[in-house]
TrEMBL record, chains A, B:
UniProt keyword terms in alphabetical order: DNA-binding, Transcription, Transcription regulation
Keyword Transport included in the entry's annotation: no
Organism encoding this protein: Asticcacaulis excentricus
Residue ranges of every copy of the HTH gntR-type domain listed in the record: 7-74
Domain of life: Bacteria
Matching SMART domains: FCD (SM00895), HTH_GNTR (SM00345)
Protein name per the record: Transcriptional regulator, GntR family
Amino acid sequence: MRTQHGVSLTYGLLETLGQSIVSGHYDGSGFPTEAELCQQFSASRTVAREAVKMLTAKGLLSARPRQGTKVEPVSRWNLLDPDVTRWLMERPFSNTIYREFTEVRLAIEPVAAALAAQHADRKDIKAIRDGLNGMRDHAAEHDQALAADIEFHVAILRASGNPFFWQLRELINTALRLSIGVTNKISGHTASIPAHEAVLIAIEKGDADGALHAMRAILLESLELIKTYDPAVGE
Amino acid sequence: MRTQHGVSLTYGLLETLGQSIVSGHYDGSGFPTEAELCQQFSASRTVAREAVKMLTAKGLLSARPRQGTKVEPVSRWNLLDPDVTRWLMERPFSNTIYREFTEVRLAIEPVAAALAAQHADRKDIKAIRDGLNGMRDHAAEHDQALAADIEFHVAILRASGNPFFWQLRELINTALRLSIGVTNKISGHTASIPAHEAVLIAIEKGDADGALHAMRAILLESLELIKTYDPAVGE
DNA sequence: TTAAGACAATTGTATAATAAAAAATGCCGC
DNA sequence: GCGGCATTTTTTATTATACAATTGTCTTAA
């Protein structure tokens, strides 16, 4: 295995295997043994073992002598691990996972907004406002509008002052990127600027309850969109 | 290093190092080099490296040639990793971390209860009721009452049907175990049975909004308790 | 003073050999 | 035939060693 774009062999293999596992590549067939891994990826045993150990640390694999290395059931995966979350995005779009992401966001973000209303300092508020302005200014260019949308939501997580909320930034990043796949198919729908502005205003006023409900409204709408749109039917 | 109680050397070292890092043992001094680790723990380089790699996968460490291995800032830790969460409990009690845990619970559990009200099947409800009954029947014995309390809350996470919520069981487990350290110091306080019962009843009725608010009430009370009780003052 | 190059420290990678675990197999006595 | 026990075999776990790659530091010369 050749080292690619600055990543070490071990981390390259970690990435490759992580994506393969999450996308179900080994579901029927069982995971390769160490020897097979070394051969398939032309890697040394050290590299293969360390990649497997890292995947084990994330709950994706387990290994025992004689029994081999197995893919763990999804219920054991560390779904909130940023790497795992990211790998989840690389697999074929699933309405279910998108709904589950949004349910997590529905739980976290309103409370984060409420905490932000209580604790945000000037710098926090500037970051949130920058996100909102970006959404407004680049409404036409999808990529930049999405980036600004993400910036807005992540800035609120940070402003909450709770490091655990901050951990979920990768999930929200992923969820919002998935969401374009959904909302683009629904004619004329774009992220609502006024709804986002309401959140900012409430945070600026220190209105925790207002921020909570304004954010909750944004996410409830997303959740409604998902339920309305069933990919099996068409739109 | 001798293998202890059935754990492999690598996992033993992972546990030891994880606890040490989280408890701040290397904060001033910097993390040992591979060579030093091998010597200090009488471990082979493979064992040391694999333990370090797993800690890297959890965001606690980073390693670069010539620069050595460093403890990452807390903001990079995978705080929602079950192992990390558990290690956090082993360090000296901190009012801050307990508040942060409870804020996460305040976000997650009400929404989980609402989803449970929509999706719970008979088995889910039985598990929740078992928890509640356990709290009632063993109100006097602290250990069993705590276990039942945990069972109640975790059963609701499971009943939500969202695997991401289920990931937070270790955090809730830890938070509730920490909570006895707080509530025991507040005379006469025990987990409120009626408040928990209200959650169960709402879930049984399929009343999502009722379940959400009932659960929210429980957690808001916990949060109030923390604010009231300042360990610096005494009680 | 600065830049080029040599040096050194530390992690990264490779390989070989042995140990331990546990499943599979075969053997034996009955 | 069949149950139980010893043996074999497969696979990961551990140890040891050597070399490569990276990068900070020091030296030296222009």
